[in-house]
Amino acid sequence: MSSDQAKSPPEQPAQPAAVPAYPPQYSGAHYPQLPPGAYPPPYYTYTPLANDPNHDPNAPNGPPMPYLMAFPPPPPGMVYAYAPPPPVPGQGMPYPYPPPQGLPAAPRPKRKQVKMACTNCAGACKRCDDSRPCERCVKYGIADTCVDGTRKERKKGIKRGPYKRKSKFGSNEAAFPTASSAPTGEASTEPTTTPAPTYPPMPESYYPYYYPHPGYPAPGHEVPQPNGEAVANGNGHPMPHPYYPLHPAVYPSYPPYSHPGPVAYAAPPAMMPPPPPPPDVNGKADDTVTAAPKSKKKRKVGEDGAPKAKKAKATNGEITNGVGPTAVGSSHTNGTAVNGVNGAADQRHVVSSA
DNA sequence: CCTCTCGGAGCCTAAAGTCG
DNA sequence: GACTTTAGGCTCCGAGAGGG
């Protein structure tokens, strides 16, 4: 179904009820060169999938890799962890385990909108496409009424107050910590003069983690560039990945990927998470931050408090609101009644009392 | 269970404001 | 004039109600 393409990514597989013991190859003993005591075991590795860009083609199952890694170096305070591999038929979940519900999952893909929904889809608040008749109108047998509406012209001459200057690291003036701002809490005296490093977007199905600070590289792997090529050092050998295994004592491990502890992951002590955006003067949601969970919507009720009657069903059993030529699509978030796409009065969401 | 409604989050982009 | 920020206008996701 085409409307599924914009839906949330599929849920991660359910976490196994029982957490079996980790096999020895998933212990921190893999990394003897780590500073003694700095990152004591256990920490675990995850063998990359064959389609993983870090997968070693010369090793059928790839080299063991720490589950926490930075590729390329992420913004301070963040590392990327591999997404869980798919379950192995007959063997269940491989290591590590999938993240639990509530783990900050990969950002959902941006919703894509068509330039102009047809009048039917607009009225029904349903997904449209660029073809005419659109897929939905064809499906409902109303292809003959599948036409574009007309957009209202934007208002002009509306005066605004002075603009707030945004940080380069977010949509708000509270900047995300930069590489030059010490995660250890040192205050930078020049918060805005250092050119901001640019970071690639977090790969899909990766998970954000915090790391304490760089400096504990794990065994070498190539450091692929965004184009997928590896960077070699002066000797022609691949540069190691900047891995940052977490110190379980300081930064409690995330259960599914590390020591089976109960601690949900949080920002390191010296590295505060990106601050919540200040309330927008207009109350408008900031697209760059995770929105709060939607509030439970309340059913629209009539003057007497009784639920408004549904529109009568069409005889063909298909939807009746918004599919006809009088259906309109217009803003309904600002509370202003405006003309619909056909110039008719806004009948959207108006329920017939008949 | 399925269909339909519709609140409101999210997206696009033009207008207003700022900067060099 | 180019760039940035804001917000108007719109799309459409997805929870919830109600019907079959």
TrEMBL record:
Organism: Hermanssonia centrifuga
Compositional bias ranges of the Pro residues kind: 33-43, 271-280
GO molecular function (one): DNA-binding transcription factor activity, RNA polymerase II-specific
Residues covered by region (Disordered): 1-66, 151-200, 271-354
Compositional bias annotation for Low complexity: 1-20, 44-59, 182-196
Compositional bias of kind Polar residues: 328-339
Matches recorded under PANTHER family: FUNGAL TRANSCRIPTIONAL REGULATORY PROTEIN, N-TERMINAL DOMAIN-CONTAINING PROTEIN, ZN(II)2CYS6 TRANSCRIPTION FACTOR (EUROFUNG)-RELATED
Keywords carried by this UniProt record: DNA-binding, Metal-binding, Nucleus, Transcription, Transcription regulation, Zinc
InterPro entries found in the cross-reference section: ERT1_acuK_gluconeogen_tf, Zn2Cys6_DnaBD
UniProt cross-references to CDD domains, sorted A to Z: GAL4
Name of the protein described by the UniProt record: Zn(2)-C6 fungal-type domain-containing protein
Basic residues composition-biased segments: 152-168
Domain Zn(2)-C6 fungal-type: 117-148
